[in-house]
Amino acid sequence: MLSILKSVSLGEFLQRAGSLSDSNIWIALVVDLKDIQPTVEDLQDTIEVFTECETGTVSGENGAYELIDRVADATQDYLLLWQFEFWQPEEWRTFDTLRSRLDKGKIGGLLILSLESAYVMLTNAPNFASWLGANIYTFAKDAEMLTQEEVEKRLAALREWAGKSDAEVITLAENQMLPTDPEYGEWLILLNRGELLEQQR
Amino acid sequence: MSERLKFFRRLMAAFESTADPRRAIEKGYYVAPPHNLIAEEIAGRCALRPSSAHLLFGGIGSGKTTQLLVVRGRLNELEDIHAIYLDVSLYTDIADLQPGALISIAGLELAKLLGATDDSELQSSKQIIEQIAYGYKERRLEPSLLTIARAAQSLDEPREVVVHHKGLLSTLKLKTDSKLLKAFTLLSQSVSQNSEKIIFLFDGLDRLNNPQTFLHSALNDVLKLEREGIGAVIVGSIPAIYSADRENIEQFASYSYYLSYLDPIQDIEAKQFFEHIFTVRDREGYITPEARELLIAYSGGVLRDLMSLTQAAIQGAYVDSADTIEPEHITNAASSLARSKLIGLSDPSLEILKQVMHDLVFYPRTKEAFQLLLTGHILEYQHPERCFVVHPILVPLIQKLTSSGSYAVNS
């Protein structure tokens, strides 16, 4: 059933997130339940590097009211919201009626949730869902979903775009001099050098 | 950051669908819709009769907030009217909206407008409104228990107790207090003496799906405000207008308006309106004419969907390393939005959609049917003639699901 949603790799996700203007724009990322925590940890660092903004996490473990309050108090430029798995329909309905309080002008964020939670959200929070629009994706954590041919094609496009070789990009990353365009993050992932992303902070 | 990324971010910013509509109006992006010149109509009627009450209904993403902001702009151009826009959901949990809550929110705004005052009566009124809104503690002397129960001598002393009065804007309940209306009246009279008629524009109540709460809390307050000579425009949700209380609800307000969607295919003026939106927001034409046409058709006339689709298509073009937004980007964006809209739909809801697609008629009677109207899965058009259609973006996917037999998407 995950297949009904558009699946994005980390690289594509970074590009999409990086193309967003500084605004009240929200994205939902649907991942396997067991992957939620590691995804939050990975994305917090990676987004910080490639969107050039301070990123914070906000937990929904204590319900919608507390989550909304913590979003209101947060000082970071971008927020990762997670731990929705215990939310019942009523909690999502509360979240929906309080939607306006999420709008902090130039700050948006990302909800990381399981498919089950996504169903409950989309059924019970129609006003928030209208904010999400097409920005709901499933997450292919690594780029394995691409065939080798697709990886080569994309790498060739990136080389042409930047006028750089793979080796030059790796050297830039090792020396922490990688430009902050999201394409470079995707590039490292396609080269199986995703570990270099963490050195860019 | 590359110039290309900067360019795409600028283009994305021009099609923001979730930002405060004030930003779009300030940037000159507002285009008046055809037929439903609702903002002008409300503003005109309020100008003639400032203490009247108006109800504005519409589905999610139909542009109600934008209309309210345009009304505010028009009214505030008049020297003797002061229109105040308020998103009620920023003040209180609207799911638990209490009678008196709108009056107390309006009272808080009047207190702000009034500013510092030496008048003790006005000071007291401001304090009463704040206390009723936010709650307060009170120490009281209670009669001795002996007086009450003729009990033992040791209980013969008066006792001081702390009484907690929960605020109307808190999630806990408070009995409606006549003090509130009295204090509000005093403040409004004082503000009106300063020459201006006050009109409140209450937004956010379209998320209040319980018609009873809408009737007994929100509309009752608006009626009381009207009696005090204060005008109000209030937004309501589609389930409220289609509920059994519809007559009651409409009786409450002087005027009611329905912001229907615009048919982007059959209605020529509507199509021109959507084309104008692109002219204003994409002056250089990075979105090709063919792509624009597809976007307009897929949007179904839902403004927020038009913006959301356009942004998704721009993102797709960016990821594809394209320089312009072409029809294939629109098709991909439409597929993503359609899938997002379809998830979470129950089997009965899908049955209704299928039936509307097949029979081309729709009589909303059930909870599911109201919900489909609210969320824009089913769209109501009023021009060139009144009709209901399934959102065009969903049609191919529902046909595919139906023919493949894999019907339940929420199991």
Concise structural overview:
By secondary structure, chain A is α/β, with parallel strands linked by helices. In chain A, 46% of the residues lie in helices and 15% in strands.
Task: Please characterize this protein's 3D structure.
The complex is a heterodimer of chains A (201) and B (411). By secondary structure, chain A is of the alpha/beta class. Chain A has helices spanning 10-18, 36-50, 64-73, 89-97, 115-124, 126-132, 148-162, 166-174, 182-190, and strands at residues 6-9, 26-30, 55-59, 78-82, 108-113, 136-140. Chain A has a six-stranded parallel beta sheet with strand order 1-6-2-5-4-3, with helices on both faces. The longest helix of chain A is centred in the N-terminal third of the chain and has 15 residues, at 36-50. Chain A starts with 5 loop residues before the first strand and ends in an 11-residue tail after the last helix. The mean pLDDT of chain A is 85. With 411 residues, chain B is of the alpha/beta class. Chain B folds into two domains: 1-18 and 264-403, no CATH class; 36-117 and 174-259, P-loop containing nucleotide triphosphate hydrolases (Rossmann fold, 3-Layer(aba) Sandwich), CATH 3.40.50. Chain B contains 18 helices and nine strands. In chain B, the strands form three sheets. Chain B has a five-stranded parallel beta sheet with strand order 2-5-6-1-7, sandwiched between helices. In chain B, helix 1 packs antiparallel against helix 14. Chain B is globular, with a radius of gyration of 26 Å. The chains are: A alpha/beta (201), B alpha/beta (411). Chains A and B meet through helix 1, helix 4, helix 5 and helix 6 of A and helix 1, helix 14, helix 15 and helix 17 of B.
